């Protein structure tokens, strides 16, 4: 599925992949026929003369005027789920609308600004806008699950209730192809959730970029020295939390001549092949070359709270000599401080 005006949403984990073949309508509908629609109307039970009928309430069919689709009007696709990517936010879904409840005004301002950024980046036109309300022009969705391009207009509003800040997203107009139709609850629920997830994903991107920036600033001032692990074996010690150091590894190791082949953050391992840099590199960093073979090494990173241990093993899983670790210390320190 994609959104026109360059609104690319393939990176979101919010779409249901269509594993079945057939037309768009077949992907939305049950595969069986709709013969049940021809079921004769129910008749009142007629007891035999003199018989005393007994009825069990377990099987009483509820009475009432129930509205809803039947037959090919029933959409069998799983409902869209709201991505919980905004820390501290509580999601409320009612009548197809999505409301984000936030703890304070600053957080609400950030989400509101994120929504404005998203609209601007994706060239989504705005029909009306003030400090607490945005009404968009038509946003077109193209999906394999739909028979024709769909277009929707949205309203984003913000307000305060019960001491909390709220942002509400509503789908207010609906169009299939060139025909404007009433907004159904099914479409409202599905495509309001989809737009909400775009805002949440853009907010999450800003958070991750800011975290990377802070990690990059912290890692520039990391003292690196030799030390010992809990077993008394020699290791390199970086005086920085594990997550902070890990964020810079994709830059630090390649600058030292290591081409990263595999990374596993949960296990704290990085496999990288060493290719010795040229003499110009060693002259620039001002340290002597490392005497390493051009083979694949495994870096082992240990989380020690406010510090991180670093060990290195060869392809057979044997730790490299202590002297090689000592030789790496000034190189790591030079790379960490290179961009100060």
The second-level CATH architecture of the largest domain is 2-Layer Sandwich
Q: What's the gyration radius in Å? A: 30 Å
β-strand number: 15
Q: What's the structural domain tally?
A: 2
CATH topology label of the largest domain: Alpha-D-Glucose-1,6-Bisphosphate, Chain A, domain 4
What is the ordering of alpha helices and beta strands? EHEEHEEEEEEHEEHEEHEEH
Describe the largest sheet: 9 strands, antiparallel
Q: How much helicity do the residues have?
A: 25-40%
Q: Regions with pLDDT < 50 over 5+ consecutive residues? A: 4-21
State the separation between the terminal residues, measured CA to CA. Answer: 43 Å
Q: Categorize the overall geometry.
A: elongated
Question: Structural class, please?
Answer: alpha+beta
Mean pLDDT: 84
Determine the number of helices (DSSP H or I, runs of at least 4 residues).
Answer: 6
CATH class of the largest domain: Alpha Beta
Strand content: 25-35%
Membrane topology: Lipid-anchor
Subunit structure: Part of the Bam complex.
Family: Belongs to the BamC family.
Subcellular location: Cell outer membrane
Keywords:
six-stranded antiparallel β-sheet, 2 domains, TATA-Binding Protein, nine-stranded antiparallel β-sheet, alpha+beta, Alpha-D-Glucose-1,6-Bisphosphate, Chain A, domain 4, 340 residues
Detailed description of the structure:
There is one protein chain. The protein has 2 domains: 90-216, Alpha-D-Glucose-1,6-Bisphosphate, Chain A, domain 4; 224-339, TATA-Binding Protein. The chain contains 6 helices and 15 strands. The protein has helices at residues 24-28, 105-121, 185-219, 242-255, 279-285, 322-337; strands spanning 2-3, 90-94, 97-102, 126-130, 133-136, 139-142, 150-161, 164-176, 179-181, 224-228, 234-238, 258-264, 269-274, 296-303, 308-313. Strand 2 and strand 3 (97-102) form a beta hairpin. Part of the Bam complex. This is Outer membrane protein assembly factor BamC. It is a lipid-anchor. Part of the outer membrane protein assembly complex, which is involved in assembly and insertion of beta-barrel proteins into the outer membrane.
């Amino acid at each position: 599925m994609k959104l026109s005006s360059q609104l690319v949403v393939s990176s979101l984990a919010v779409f249901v992949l269509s594993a079945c073949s057939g037309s768009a309508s077949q992907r939305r509908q049950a595969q069986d026929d709709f013969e049940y629609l021809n079921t004769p109307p129910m008749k009142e039970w007629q007891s035999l003369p003199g018989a005393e009928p007994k009825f069990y309430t377990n099987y009483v069919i509820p009475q009432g005027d129930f509205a809803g689709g039947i037959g090919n009007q029933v959409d069998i696709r799983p409902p869209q789920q709201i991505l919980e990517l905004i820390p501290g936010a509580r999601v409320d879904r009612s009548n197809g609308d999505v409301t984000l409840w936030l703890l304070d005004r600053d957080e609400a301002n950030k989400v509101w600004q994120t929504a404005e950024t998203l609209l601007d980046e994706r060239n989504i036109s705005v029909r009306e806008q003030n400090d607490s309300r945005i009404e968009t022009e038509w946003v077109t969705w193209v999906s394999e699950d739909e028979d024709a391009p769909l277009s929707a207009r949205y309203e984003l509003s913000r307000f305060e209730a019960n001491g909390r800040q709220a942002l509400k997203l509503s789908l207010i107009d609906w169009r299939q192809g060139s025909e404007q139709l009433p907004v159904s609850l099914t479409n409202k629920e599905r495509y309001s959730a989809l737009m909400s997830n775009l805002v949440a994903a853009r907010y999450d991107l800003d958070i991750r970029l800011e975290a990377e920036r802070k990690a990059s600033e912290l890692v520039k001032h990391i003292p690196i020295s030799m030390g010992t692990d809990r077993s008394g074996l020699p290791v390199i010690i970086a005086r920085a939390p594990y997550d902070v150091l890990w964020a810079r590894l994709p830059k630090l190791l390649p600058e030292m001549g290591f081409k990263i082949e595999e990374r596993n953050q949960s296990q704290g391992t990085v496999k990288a092949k060493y290719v010795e840099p040229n003499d110009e590199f060693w002259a620039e960093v001002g340290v002597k070359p490392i005497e390493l073979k051009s083979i694949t090494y495994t870096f082992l990173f240990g989380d020690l709270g406010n510090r991180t241990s670093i060990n290195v093993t060869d392809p057979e899983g044997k730790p490299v000599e202590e002297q090689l670790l000592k030789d790496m210390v000034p190189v790591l320190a030079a790379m960490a401080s290179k961009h100060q």
